[in-house]
Write a structure and sequence with these properties.
The protein is of the alpha/beta class and 346 residues long. It contains 15 helices and 12 strands. Helix 1 links the parallel strand 1 and strand 2. The radius of gyration is 22 Å and the shape is elongated.
């Protein structure tokens, strides 16, 4: 049974209808997208044009995802607000056809990302906001370098994504994420910030910009470190709040990085701040200086949210994409799982 928007607690059902000449394609696609709840739409598959037409007579279809083998005259007669065609071969330019197209033989996440981009290019009737309670924001930060901060943040995200909708965002100039996860990014944090500054970043737009790793959504890091220099503290905090309050996530993982003047606005958004530290004199001195700084600037509440952690060493792991696979099974992976369960000693 399809899960409707009303059953998910949304104020109004938005329908994405899917029809393809391959009947199984529409069913599989609908099952995957509805299960993951990646978009604020209910995806309804159709096995024939006749059934699709009958449904359209009684229901408003917000997005129609339909085979490019269907004549455009037939598509126009359905009356959907937005149409994207499914191409089995080469995707032609939108200037050569009436409707934009996406390549159907790719992951459901990739199809949805491209469909949402096409949908957002149209004049907006409303701004979509997912009506859920604010997500819990878990920050990972340390004034100490080389302390497995990013490794811990990725394990946190992976683990929490198994329990609920989770997004990871990192404020690093050079994160190494692309090398570890692999793939090419058409969009990154700079694009997300652009739409936020235009006041047009909502759950639908975000869905066209995020990527997915093992059920965890993540925003690709900036391609150019200069983009981080243009990011103000207020903007960084605003982005975290939008992810937590308006996009339907249950957990937001923030890899704080070394954002300089942006540090405090980001930390203020976090419900808990995990701070990996090392057991040496230099690390201890840096930690003491940071705690003194929080006292000086009146950030006692932020200070109280910090949990200092001494993480287990996890060396001798493979590089590249294999690193993350082995990382999840490492001592650090076990440590993070115990930490989330509240086990003593973690």
């Amino acid at each position: 049974m399809l899960r409707t928007a009303a059953a998910r607690g949304e104020s109004m059902e938005k329908i994405m209808a899917v029809y393809d000449v391959d009947r199984e394609y529409a069913n599989r696609f609908a099952d995957v997208v509805n299960l993951k709840e990646k978009v604020p739409f209910t995806v309804v598959p159709f096995s024939s044009l006749e059934l699709l037409r009958e449904y359209a007579e009684k229901h408003r279809i917000e997005i129609l995802l339909i085979s490019d083998e269907v004549p455009q005259k037939e598509i126009r007669g359905i009356g959907a607000r937005s149409v994207v065609t499914l191409a089995a071969g080469e995707v032609v330019s939108v200037s050569e056809t009436e409707y934009p197209a996406v390549y159907k033989y790719q992951s459901a996440d990739s199809v949805i990302r491209e469909v949402m981009a096409c949908y957002c290019d149209q004049p907006a009737e409303e701004r979509f906001v997912a009506l859920k309670k604010r997500a819990r924001v878990l920050g990972v930060y340390s004034p100490v370098g080389r302390c497995f901060k990013t490794s811990m943040a990725l394990i946190l995200g992976h683990q929490l994504a198994r329990e609920g909708k989770t997004v990871y965002v990192g404020f690093e100039e050079f994160s190494g994420l692309q090398r570890m996860i692999g793939g090419e990014y058409k969009n990154d944090l700079s694009d997300v910030l652009y739409f936020m500054r235009q006041n047009s970043l909502d759950v639908v737009r975000l869905r066209s910009l995020v990527y997915t790793w093992k059920n965890m959504d993540y925003i690709a890091p900036v391609r150019y470190p200069e983009d981080m220099e243009l990011l103000s503290g207020d903007e960084a905090g605003q982005l975290v709040e939008i992810l937590a309050s308006e996009c339907g996530y249950e957990s937001v993982i923030v890899d704080v990085g070394r954002p300089g003047r942006n540090l405090l606005p980001i930390l203020e958004c976090c419900d808990v701040i995990y701070m990996p530290v090392k057991d040496d004199a230099v690390a201890a001195a840096k930690l003491e200086e940071f705690m003194d700084y929080l006292e000086t600037v009146g950030q006692q509440r932020t200070k109280e949210r910090i949990r200092s952690l001494k993480l287990p060493y996890h060396g001798n792991l493979r590089r590249g994409g294999d690193y993350l696979e082995t990382l999840l099974l490492s001592d650090l992976g076990d440590y993070v799982r115990r930490l989330l369960k509240g086990a003593p000693g973690s």
